[in-house]
Amino acid sequence: MSRFAVIASGGKQHRVTEGEVLRLEKLPGEPGQAITFEKVLMVGGDGAVAVGKPFVEGSSVEAEVVRQDRAKKVQILKFRRRQNYMRRQGHRQQFTEVRITSING
Question: 10, 18, 19, 68: which has the fewest C-beta neighbours closer than 10 Å?
Answer without folding.
Answer: 19
